[in-house]
Amino acid sequence: MSQLRLYNTLTRRLQPFVPQEPGKVKMYHCGPTVYQRPHIGNYRAFLFADLLRRTFEASGLEVLQVMNLTDVGHLVGDADEGEDKLDAQARKEKVDPWQIVATVSEQFFQDLEALQIRPAHHYPKATDHIEEMVAQIEVLLEKGHAYRVGDNVYFDVHSFPDYGRLSGNKVADLEAGARVEVNQEKRHPADFALWKSDPRHLMKWKTVFGEHGFPGWHIECSAMSMKYLGDSFDLHTGGEDNVFPHHECEIAQAEGVSGKTFVNLWMHTKFLQVDGGKMSKSLGNVYSLDDLEQRGFEVLDFRFLVLRAHYRASVNFTWKALQGAAEARKNLHDFRGRLQAQLRGPAMQAEAGEHSGPARKAFWDALHDDLNTSAALAALFELRNAYTQKGMEATEAADALDLLNLADDIFGLFDQESADSGDLPDPEIDALVEERNQARRNRDFARSDQIRDQLAAAGIVLEDGPEGTLWHRA
RNA sequence: GCCGGCAUGGCCAAGUGGUAAGGCAAGGGAUUGCAAAUCCCUCACCCCCAGUUCGAAUCUGGGUGCCGGCUCCA
């Protein structure tokens, strides 16, 4: 079988994936800032993390996965420049920020479940790890990577020569391009905050750095990832917006503390676009999972839409595109149903030919080529075409079904609930189908249509063909 | 202004030098007691311009458009 190769943002090339510890993968994903419900764009990144997880697991690797919850506000960097989002949201809603965190987190986990994203092994919260952050900052101070100005602590980017390697930014260029007012107390404009103090902040902690402090944006991720995964681990992912400054700063902090290579492989997903441009509140196209359902779609249709595109290409989200994805997903689901039906039913006439083997190879080759999900999905549809055009004998059909189930295991295509919880047991359906055919032979169409309606109500699709009637669950 | 990425049919989307995967939609046909489902057929020369090459969607240069970043603030 081909070997898995992944694109590393750090080296800007594809490289074979080799876990540090054979058979095991340790990875960390930048999770949501829980100040408001994540939108579908955020979920693209989380779906990508899940795709990695499932691909590894389907390959027989043991995965240890951590995703943080940022529950202390930071700049996220849009129009609200200069505001702590959690803090601002709390003031706006006139509620305790901790309440917002609780509400949004709960919503987030419900969304993950709806998307059939496998739960990470840890979801550490920033506010539960203030101690670890402070400890790292103290080490950075000791080692000369950080300096203190009053009750604030900054990372000295000149103390870390690799700063800028991930993003390709040069410290000198950053200085030249800075559009934000220079903070005069920093030694260099590119230095970033590790700890800040402000009595007016709603969420604040008393530490060695003073009475009213709160952590800088980046330190939580190095503190938490190293706590749960060690000084050095395999994979770290996030949206493309995280490359700089967030991940750049994480590397500086983590390697500044440990002196070891922090992460071997950095992966980033492109942003989801909406109607050819970026999502924005002013255009009213920042959608949540609820918006999809209100338009009559299933959450999994969105999952499928995202997986139809390569993770490093921007996906254009439109309602029309989602409709197309929903239809395609349904067709794949029906294909699986037909394979199941065939295996239950009488032997099928089929041309000799082997389709599942090549499809399986194409599927894995595509996935191994930097998770080329659209090509992997195409292999499935080609298998379906081979089936409809030439038919398959039982062993071949069983093999095809097995491949579809593997694809479902990796992509999370089908609703797990409905997959095996039909209202009617198979023998009963078979009996009804037989009764209907008998009625049709007797031209008792009232009775046959009645049975058809009954089965349709139970979610059973009938296919009347020249060689008899096949059924599958919708 | 600076750095980086992308641009494929009505829509979504693979494809990085050898002559355009796949899906959705659409049109035509078959099948059917009616219907559904199903089946068959049709449907692109790859943003523009100029180059390199026997040959480019794929490489180079220049446009145009879209996307990300340019770092903690009050």
List keywords for this structure.
474 residues, alpha/beta, Rossmann fold, Four Helix Bundle (Hemerythrin (Met), subunit A), 3 domains, five-stranded antiparallel β-sheet, four-stranded parallel β-sheet, 15 strands, 16% strand, elongated, RNA-binding
Task: Summarize this entry quickly.
With 474 residues, the protein is of the alpha/beta class.
Description of the molecule:
- The protein is α/β, with parallel strands linked by helices.
- It folds into three domains: 17-269, Rossmann fold (3-Layer(aba) Sandwich); 319-413, Up-down Bundle (Four Helix Bundle (Hemerythrin (Met), subunit A)); 426-473, no CATH class.
- Helix content is 46%, strand content 16%.
- It has 16 helices and 15 strands.
- A five-stranded antiparallel beta sheet has the order 5-6-7-9-8, with helices on one face.
- Strand 3, helix 1 and strand 4 form a beta-alpha-beta unit.
- Helix 1 (40-58) packs across helix 9, helix 1 (40-58) packs across helix 13 and helix 12 packs antiparallel against helix 13 (394-411).
- The protein is elongated and about 95 Å long.
- The chain starts with a strand and ends with a strand.
- It binds one RNA strand of 74 nucleotides through helix 5, strand 7, helix 7, helix 10 and helix 12.
